Write the structure tokens for this entry.
Amino acid sequence: MVYFLRPIPGIRISERRAVVFLESSTEENNIDAHSAYLGFAQDLQRGINKAFELFVDGVDSNDRRHHGWDKSQSGGRYTCCHVFKHDQTRLYGIKGHSDTQHPRFEVCALVECAQKTKNDTDESIMKRLVMIAASQEFKRALTDYGCPHGGGRNHEGRAALDRGQSRRLPV
């Protein structure tokens, strides 16, 4: 299996952050954020996009729109996880740093879509995200994505990002 990161058309990338879709070379049931997003009604997509923009702008937490989990929550197990929200729809992702040359650049790779049905977050989703984040395949996808602003060994240029093309490169 190979993971790769795909930019979200219409969502800008700042100097410090990006939100992208995680995709897989195989059919994995729980990697559905991209297909779910494409099926969203226009108002839902607009609401989720607003949450993406807040994250990209550097707003670390806006509980109504998006948030991560800090070390004081859940024993610190889910600090790599992030959720974007609109009404009852949730898009869960994994945060990571994609370029050692630009360690302040942070990527949130969206993995799974779910509907909020209870107060607490479904811990099985969080456990899956942590498992994916720890995998060599995910780490390779992050490295392949690189930093779109600062070059690095895998920089393909801003034009490719603007066209919505994948950042996956041959290994």
Summary: The chain has one domain: 3-161. The longest helix spans residues 42-56. The two ends are 13 Å apart (CA to CA).
